[in-house]
Amino acid sequence: MTPGQLPANEVARLLRLRQLRALDTPSEAALDAFTRIAASITGMPIALISLVDSDRQWFKSAVGLQQGDETARDVSFCGHAILQPQLFEVEDARADLRFHDNPLVLEAPNVAHYAGMPLVMPSGEAVGTLCVLSPRPGRLTGEQRRLLSELARGVVDVLLLRQDELQLKEERRTAEAVRMSELAPAGMFSADERGQVLHGNNQWVTILGGHSLAALEGSAWMQCIHPEDRPGLQAAWEQTVQERSGYEGTFRCQPLGDEAPRWVRIRCEPVESSGSRVAFVGVVTDTTETLRLQEELNRQNRLLARALEASNLGLWEYDLGARCVYLSAGWTQLLGLPGQDWQVRPKATRSFFPQQARPTILAAWRQLLNGEVDRVSLEHEMIMESGEPIWVVSEAQVLERDTSGRARHVVGTSKDITARVRADAELRAALQAADQASVAKSDFLATMSHEIRTPLNGVIGLTQLLREASLPPMESDSVTLIDSCAKSLLSLVDNILDFSKIEAGHLTLEEVPTDLPQMLQELGDLFTARAAEKGIRFDLHQQPGLPRWIATDPGRLRQVLLNLLGNALKFTDMGNFGLRVTTRESDAGLRLSFAVTDTGPGIPAEAQARLFTRFTQAGNPSLRKSGTGLGLAISRQLAQLMGGDVTLVSQEGLGSRFTLEIPLRTAAPPLAVQIMAEARVIRSDARLLLAEDNEVNQLVAQRILASLGFTQLTVVENGQDAVRACQEAPFDLVLMDCHMPVLDGWNAARELRRLGVTIPILAFTAAATLGDRDRCLAAGMNDYLTKPVEKAVFAEKLRRWLTGAAEPHASPSLLRAAPGSSDVFDHGVIGRYFGDDAQAFAAALEMFLRQSRESLAQLKAAGGEGMARLMHGMRGSAATLGGTRLSALCAGLEVSPDYEQMDTVATEVERFASAARAFNGFAGPERLRT
Questions:
Q1: Mean pLDDT of 679-685
Q2: With 143 labelled, which of 77, 582, 652, 790 sits at a CA distance of 20 to 30 A?
Q3: How far apart are the C-alpha atoms of 833 and 811, rounded to whole Å?
Q4: In the CATH scheme, what is the code of domain 671-801?
Q5: What CATH number does domain 184-291 carry, 3.20.20.10, 3.30.450.20, 2.60.120.10, 1.10.10.410?
Q6: Cα separation of 617 and 767, whole Å?
Q7: Overall fold of domain 10-167
Q8: Which residues, including other chains, have CB under 8 Å from residue 325's CB and lie 6 or more apart?
Q9: Is the pTM of the predicted complex or chain greater than 0.70?
Q10: CA angle, 101 as apex, 100 and 102 as ends, to 5°?
């Protein structure tokens, strides 16, 4: 094998090849067309555009081989072809002494026939060949040789056009780069392989202080360097050019003229020229102002350091590498040591920290050192030289970390806060004392409320009974006066308790479905009668279309309206007063408005601003009425708790208008109301149990109940007797006092529910402070009556819980073919509530089952939130429908909600459903089938 010789112009040839920028580039369609044509006209299986590099031949285009492949130049046929001025052809390489042992002949592609036309540039450099190859010997015809020669010239033309196009693109990019460099805030320049500056932007000229770019091109820019810095920069630049490496440095620039020297930072990097003259690009920035600012910063830091020394801050610094702690004079003075800087080992500082403070300090210190935090601030104790403890606040910050993130340098300050800590301790003690006083006040109010209500219950109850009796006029007036005084005293107790709750932030409102028309009707009936007694008129106006059921706290809403209407009645001696109920749209949504108007004396403008202040009454002192001055203050605060307000418009001599406005939220009727949609007649034959240890309260309750027609009353004196009585005889309702000997009312109610007793239990108690109602309901009671109780309120509560048909047992037609009752389903209750109406029972049952299943699913999705409220509702409805065991289960979970019992409740609902549907005493099973 004979390798091809190097051409005489090899260096120029390789340079020309580089300028084409075709090596190691992807295939191009324009060149691939030539190889396909060459293969076609010669009938050879392989055609190549082969570029001959210094030690390889690389295939720019290929047919029959892979584009981009290469072989060593020593074994290439093209290495011989580029030496020839015309076509180079080997008819049978196997018989040619130059190629017979060539690897390309002996192995794939097993070349036998080769014909290559050199690709000669206009300047005479042969950069490669257009060649064809075959594994079979052969010889090109004259026409094939001519066509291959023309194709080779075409390839040269394409390569030249390609080079021109690349050059044009580069020039455009260079022009764009030059334009962009003119917009840059830094000086930018480019240099050739010898380090001669080719171009610089205007900023480069300005920073170096030259008059023009032309004056700084080549190496002339060195003349702008300060004479003291020029030799060093010139040597570094020459080394950079020689090594084709990057360079970064700072030097002073000596501008032409009288300007002061400027500090300049230079940075340059070598770039791949790819045929371009540019070999280096660089940036210069004027750092004069930066260095000036740095010096100013250093000066300010020195001033700050001196200021720290002069302050009461103790400065410390910890060098973890040197295991050394620096303590400033301020820090040592903090501990009563001589006021001088210290430099000590870390162990020497341990005695300054008390034993009990060390764990907290060490934990924070480890977090800082390990990189969990970058800064810590900690209040802790320290021990002075005298042994006296002080409190300091220490702050620390990491200045430097090693490569693993662990702190190497930490600085911090410490400040004496002993006076503040002692003041905080005194404040906490004062707050604790105030809390204790508040608790004592609350306990006192609760006790006094109970003690005052107990005798008031007797006074008001007996006066109500006496007022119903036929008494002589003088005695009747006295009884009326006694009743009025007792109620005023009760109102005073209630107002003080309410205001105490509001002031302490302990008053909470419930939000339950409330029958608005019923409440307004009750208020209308009450104030129509009271207005008639006074000889004036009461008017009630309701906007058409008001919703029936709204979500609110009915007790508190009624309380506010009673106060506003009571005031209007009190201050109106002639004319009329009234209540107008409307709705209006607002930015916050729909609002419900209650406007109370009167034709009273009106309120002076100067008194209106303080009217809602506690213990304040407005107007002429001679016109003031009885009262505590708390009513309006409480009313406004209750309105605000409900999301609304009470406002006033008044004109002296013409009357006043107080407006209560609250958010209007409609509500669905309670399940019990839907089931018991028809009004029921109160059962006067009901068997009642009264648990009460006070003889006066026993007497009052007996007489009020008797006046209401209830004669079957059993009285016991403690909770234990109440539990025993319920086990020995059936009762329809229990009135339960809370404060009783032996067993109190709360525990008695819990015991009755535990035993499965599902009859209504009403708290009948003088306990009226915060949480008493909730405590009673949580114990398993159904409702809450506070002593003293109005006869009308007493009657309403009994009507609510004792409604039902007069017959205590189901009618015979209902019990026809009925299965026996069980603790799952007691059909004996059906007659009391539904009579002979099978369709009503079926509808009520399916409504209960549907709503219970939906509510249980929602409760489960909410994680059990609101379980007590749901159990309360299900308990009463289940009892009404005969679900005895389900009602008892719900009663227990209402008192002690247990989310884990959710599945048990769901199972019991289905058992009750099956048992109730099996009851076929109605109009056939089809009525009860879902």
A1: 53
A2: 77
A3: 11
A4: 3.40.50.2300
A5: 3.30.450.20
A6: 29
A7: Beta-Lactamase (3.30.450)
A8: 316, 317, 318, 319, 342, 343, 344, 345, 346, 348, 349
A9: no
A10: 95
